[in-house]
Amino acid sequence: MKKTALVLGATGGIGGEVARLLVARGWNVKALHRDPQRAAKSGDGMQWLAGDAMNRDDVVSAAQGTQLIVHAVNPPGYRNWGALVVPMIDNSIAAARASGARILLPGTVYNYGPDAFPIIDEESPQRPVTRKGAIRVELEARLQAAAADGVRTLIVRAGDFFGPKVGNSWFAQGLVKPGKPLTAISYPGSAGIGHQWAYLPDVAETMVRLVENEDKLETFARFQMEGHWDADGTRMVAAIANAAGKPELKAGAFPWWLMALASPFVAVFRELREMRYLWQQPVLMSNKRLVQVLGAEPRTPLDVAVKRTLAGLGAI
Predict the structure, then answer these.
(1) Which CATH number fits domain 4-161+198-229+282-297: 2.40.340.10, 3.30.1300.10, 3.40.50.720, 3.10.20.600?
(2) NAD(P)-binding domain: from which residue to which, for each copy (predicted)?
(3) What percent of the residues of the chain are helix, what percent strand, and what percent coil, each to the nearest 5?
(4) If 227 and its partner were Cys, which of 49, 171, 198, 297 is the partner (CB 3.0–4.6 Å)?
């Protein structure tokens, strides 16, 4: 029998990537949207249902008959995170409890503060130094508590996302300008400081492979991806320049001063500025546990991944 998944956030970067891959793998995929007729015009093979992730009845009803709930929904532009994010995870937990489905949550490095750096594993202490990090910790804590009741969860953490369909990312908001030919690169990091990247199609592939290995997963399962490690901040810049056919391009400094000035008025700038500490010191997530289960981590060569990303963003 075909398996069925419910994807919350299917119009977003990670939600859409996972949803399309599940369809390609033969899953029935349901997705919630406030305007399902408009969403269905994408022709992506999903069953679009009218509903809202903030409405528990909508989520519980949509999750009936599913084996997987992909919780990839976030408020757009970081708006009103505190009031929206936690209720949405509670709705997914209620839906998983009613349907018996496993919840898949894309994780981040925001959970961690500098005391856990530079190398993080799944058991590293979570003492965040930002508001958004504290919310992420709360999400995982609620999922872990629900696991004691038998609600199955899979959390996959990765570095900064980039990919052809990712607009809300450091790559698209900080390094390049989407929609116009590449003429300049800015870089938010300090000189010589390593940074971790994750190509979104690789993240989706990793998640789906783990889901396909259900018999190897604990009730509360957590994994981390290594992705693409840029040891000194030059590797990603060089890959962008080469993909654009302009190997002579060098990175300019990211305008942190502008973030400081605009933060009181622009929510996205405020959230980006809050994450600056992740660019001031190396942070590397270990994928040892992931490799033990999958044998190897899916990894598209960096040059290929960057070229596809820039093409998707309209920068080349």
Answers:
(1) 3.40.50.720
(2) 9-123
(3) 40, 20, 40
(4) 198
